[in-house]
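TA notes, week 10

Several of you asked for a full example with nothing omitted. So below is the full record: structure tokens for the whole chain, then the designed sequence directly under it. When grading your own attempts, check the secondary structure regions first.
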């Protein structure tokens, strides 16, 4: 249990399924108020109804396309106006399209940058003054182990997550002395619908099936660390160990893991 979540308002992006849905469930289970954001109003409505019925907490939701900056800015303003002070933010929304750079579609590249990076910056930038004014709050950014180890066909996705990790690390140093916690969650493959867009062929998902993380476990771990001074959450731990080896000996690691790296 995490007693610090009770009564806290936590904004969760990408909350219409997968990790985001489970994050909302675990926040509500701990007595917090999850505020959900995603593109699918129908899915959000169903999730909110289930959460309210199961846990007896308010579960407001907002439809927004985070790739549309002006629209998302207006929705954030509306959320702040309607709910007053927000206590926590989980930047969970993210997309991927795995492809060789030379064969990539520019629209896919632009959308990954917009959702994975720009919208995360936007949300953080608009909510941060509220946290600093209160002298408390928690920003959790869902990054990826891909931000630490890039692989073929994920150049753009890895770059977006590398940006998230860099942003998170710098932001932490800026605001922790002022009472605001900042956490990076670096994940390996998770068993969600993420891969339906990232790799429609299903070949990569099949190749990593045995090591895929359970989204419920991921969400439970993240919520368990809400409003605590947790620098990073790395899952699975063995993959994080691999990223540390890679940072020391990248050439040897790329040669050794070439077959694995090319499974996308």
């Amino acid at each position: 249990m995490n007693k610090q979540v009770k009564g806290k308002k936590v904004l969760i992006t990408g909350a219409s399924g997968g990790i985001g849905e489970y994050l909302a469930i675990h926040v509500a289970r701990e007595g917090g108020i999850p505020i959900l954001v995603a593109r699918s109003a129908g899915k959000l409505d169903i999730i909110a109804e289930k959460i309210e019925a199961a846990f007896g907490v308010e579960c407001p939701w907002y439809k927004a396309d985070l790739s549309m900056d002006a629209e998302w800015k207006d929705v954030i303003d509306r959320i702040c106006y309607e709910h007053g002070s927000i206590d926590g933010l989980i930047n969970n929304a993210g997309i991927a399209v795995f492809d060789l750079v030379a064969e990539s579609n520019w629209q896919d590249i632009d959308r990954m940058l917009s959702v994975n990076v720009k919208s995360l910056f936007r949300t953080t930038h608009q909510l941060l003054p509220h946290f600093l004014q209160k002298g408390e709050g928690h920003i959790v950014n869902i990054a990826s182990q891909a931000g630490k180890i890039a692989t073929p066909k994920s150049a753009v996705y890895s770059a977006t997550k590398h940006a998230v990790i860099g942003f998170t690390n710098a932001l932490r140093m800026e605001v922790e002395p002022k009472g605001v916690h900042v956490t990076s969650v670096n994940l390996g493959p998770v068993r969600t619908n993420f891969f339906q867009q990232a790799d429609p062929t299903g070949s990569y998902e099949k190749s990593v099936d045995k090591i895929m993380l359970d989204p419920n476990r991921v969400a439970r771990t993240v919520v368990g660390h809400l409003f605590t001074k947790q620098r990073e959450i790395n899952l699975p731990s063995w993959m994080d160990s691999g990223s540390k080896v890679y940072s020391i000996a990248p050439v040897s690691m790329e040669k050794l893991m070439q077959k694995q790296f090319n499974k996308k």
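The domain at 3-261 is CATH 3.40.50.720 (Rossmann fold). Use that as a sanity check on your answer.
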